Amino acid sequence: MTGDNQGFDHLLGLSLEQPLPDEQPGHQQHAADGEEHSEYARRRDLRAERRRQSAKRRKALTAILVTVLVIGVGGFFVMQYTGDVLGLFKARNSSAAAISDYPGPGSGSVEVSVNQGDTGEDIATSLKKAGVIATRQAYLTEAKATPESATIQPGTYALKKQMRAADALIVLVDPANRLDYVLTIPEGWTVAEVSSKVEAVLGVTSEDVTAALEDTAATGLPKKAANKYEGWLSPGQYVFPRDIKVTAVFSEMVTRTVTALDTLKVAKAERQTVLTKASILQREVNPDNFGKVARVIENRIATDMALGMDTTVAYGAGKDVMELTQSDFDDEDNPYNTYQHTGLPPGPIANPSVEAIKAVLDPEAGNWVYFVTVNLDTGETKFTDSFTEFQEYVAEYRAWKEKYYTPTPSADSDS
After folding, report:
1. How confident is the model at residue 409 (pLDDT cuts 50, 70, 90)?
2. Is 61 in a helix, a strand, or coil?
């Protein structure tokens, strides 16, 4: 036997050299020669069987050892590979976390537009695409913690690339940082007032504005307006890019008015009339009295009674209401003088709000034919169908005017 075989036999607790029980010292053999030969053969076969069994055990043990070795080595490499993968994953996560927000202050310049109706999510996406912020979440976290983020105005803003999200938000919440032309038209302004504002904001001349208004095809002014924009320039805030054309400015205003009339389902044939009535409401009283004045207009027209509106007279005379004189009220040559002419004036006298338009379409119920604003500071207005009460309200207004109103140098103090 080799040393290796002896090692395996020892490991299995066996030894091929171990004597058989009948080979112990002191044993006496008394068998005949034939019996000795037979016994020798039996022993030889027994030893051969033991060798075969030992060989099987060695093979089994070798297979076990090989399996253990394979599993051990394989497990080592699996653990090593897994560790490498997990380490790489952690490294990537650590890297992502490190750039969740840029340190700032940023560099270069990029313009980002905030459109009408954009949400915080939309703004975050625009900033991320422009390379201003590292992640959308960085901006959304800052916006959530900053109440002013809800006041961000539409427009185009100049920012830097790779800014801190907080710094980008600081720029956006300040309307003064917009690069666009921002045009705000108050309710009740006239075309003349709107035109002056366009000139001032866009830095164009009155000739530029006049030329734009004459191009009704470009501005989209409806034919029913008879080339007059009064009433058709929707009040509100507008944001225009720096390369905007003057015609496009007025086109946007007209479009908003047309859209509002479409939404309210005002027939095209009635639109000029509706805007005329709405403009009177806008100039005469505060919004809380729109519905009642709309009813007064309907009641007077129904009885062919002169409207008698100071605001229409002032519009035709080119004056402020408080500057009107008796001669203005007596002037029959003024087509907007609703004291001298019955029915509606030739057209709108201002650009009305949507609220005024709605009031014209749905006047309050009542039999009023007179109204007087007795306090110009508070806008308190009284309504009646009695001429006597009307006279009392006029006296009340005159008393307020005498006590509180200070005319401007150009005003006629005797009016």
Report:
1. low
2. helix
